[in-house]
Specification:
Blueprint lengths: L5 H10 L6 E6 L5 H8 L4 E6 L7 E2 L19 H21 L5 E6 L7 H15 L4 E7 H12 L4 E5 L5 H8 L3 H7 L12 H18 L11 H13 L7 H7 L6 H13 L3 E6 L4 H5 L4 E4 L2 H5 L6 H6 L1 H19 L5 E7 L2 E8 L4 E4 L11 H9 L4 E3 L1
Parallel strand pairs: 1-5, 1-6, 2-4, 4-5, 7-9, 11-12
Antiparallel strand pairs: 2-3, 7-8, 9-10, 10-11
Helix pairs in contact: 1-2, 3-4, 4-5, 9-11
């Protein structure tokens, strides 16, 4: 039986409603966005168009409608192409619902960010559908950096509902691929790489060549203006190697070639975070300005990115308690970041000589988390001092 992520059921429920918003399914590369959308569509009539593939749109149980498409293989993926495909989907939807009153129909566009000025075109077509009362769901899939930072905020404000798809959790990898906890800590949560972990050389090559490089070269560099692409790549490599550690951007500059100023590095770190690769946690302060000025604590958002960036094998990583401790801490940090609600901030706290690994804060709650990977917890002075300074905070080991 195929494994279904929670978003599959959530999307199925939305498809049973009247189409109120465009559904945006966004997340890092290779976390199963297309697969989960296809799983949700199994019980729904639909037209599925992959922008980066020349194939005809696929329909379920209504195959004769695909002959109506005006698509010609090799046509440029521009606004005119998008309008033709949308019109084809409208015709399919109307023909289907003429025979199946009240049934849902969905039009799906995968890799939508590869159509220039897609958001302006989608806005006009969606508004026209609403004016005509067309009962057609629209689902758009794409990478986070362009979708969230550009098209959605510029043209589609108020017209979309975001479905966030993040890296796989330990429980998901355990249920789908029988991962042990230690395997998850080292190999991370990429479903496509799960069957390669018995051949670590092959697994590492796959992660670097098929996940890391496309995420940077395609999802960031081709979609966003980056003046120093080599610097961004170096920053990722350094941050992945130092995951779980504090490293001031001023010190980072000394380890990078052709380094820009700290503002440039902070901007590149934001791009890496939006791509689901690497984030820099800020120090917890009550004032937002002081948080931004703090030294970032690097944390990979999938520990496969850390393991593949260092020469340790699985066995060697477990034998080095210091390195394994950073891997465990990075696993917890990635989980917190990937599952945080939109109103929660994930940070760290440090008042020398005391430190707390992670702090979760929202308007009402404050939680301080200390991560230990050894057989004993040792001293917990950081947690004690944090709660002393922040009496409303809840300590968690």
């Amino acid at each position: 039986m195929a494994f279904h992520r929670p978003q599959v059921q959530a999307l199925r429920e939305r498809l049973q409603e009247a189409p109120l918003f465009i559904t945006i399914v966004a997340g890092p590369r290779q976390v199963g966005k297309t697969t989960l959308v296809r799983q949700a569509l199994e019980a729904c009539e639909h037209a599925f168009v992959a922008v980066d593939q020349p194939a005809e749109p696929r329909t379920r149980g209504f195959g004769e409608l695909s002959a109506q498409t005006s698509e010609i293989d090799g046509a440029p993926r521009d606004a005119a192409w998008l309008i033709r495909r949308w019109k084809d989907a409208r015709q399919q939807c109307q023909a289907f619902q003429l025979l199946n009153t009240g049934q849902s129909f969905a039009f799906v566009l995968d890799e939508i960010q590869k159509v220039p000025r897609w958001s302006d075109t989608v806005k006009g077509l969606w508004d026209a559908d609403r004016a005509q009362g067309l009962n057609m769901h629209v689902i758009l899939l794409g990478s986070s950096p362009l979708l969230i930072q550009k098209g959605l905020t510029e043209s589609l404000a108020g017209r979309y509902e975001l479905m966030r798809v993040t890296h796989w959790s330990f429980m998901e990898m355990h249920q789908a691929f029988d991962f042990t906890l230690h395997e998850y800590i080292y190999f991370g949560g990429y479903p496509g790489a799960a069957r390669l972990i018995r051949d670590e050389v092959r697994w590492r090559n796959y992660v670097l060549a098929s996940l890391v490089q496309p995420s940077i070269n395609t999802d960031i560099l081709q979609m966003t203006r980056v003046d120093k692409p080599a610097l961004l790549k170096q920053l990722f490599e350094l941050g992945a190697s130092y995951s779980g550690q504090l490293l001031a951007l001023g010190k980072v500059k000394g380890q990078l070639q052709d380094a820009g100023n700290e503002t440039t590095l902070a901007g590149y770190l934001d791009l890496l975070g939006n791509a689901g690769l690497l984030t820099g946690l800020h120090k917890y302060h009550v004032g937002a300005a002081r948080r931004r000025a703090s030294a970032p604590k690097f944390n990979v958002l999938n520990t496969a990115l850390m393991s593949s960036a260092t020469p340790y094998t699985f066995a060697q990583a477990q034998a080095d308690r210091s390195y394994w401790g950073r891997l465990v801490e990075s696993t917890v940090g990635a989980h917190l970041w990937n599952t945080a609600a939109s109103n929660e901030e994930i940070s760290y706290w440090r008042e020398s000589p005391h430190e707390v690994d992670f702090v979760i804060a929202d308007a009402l709650r404050l939680t301080a988390i200390e991560v230990k990977s050894g057989p004993s917890s040792g001293k917990l002075g950081g947690l004690t001092e944090f709660v002393k300074q922040h009496p409303t905070g809840k300590p968690l080991l």
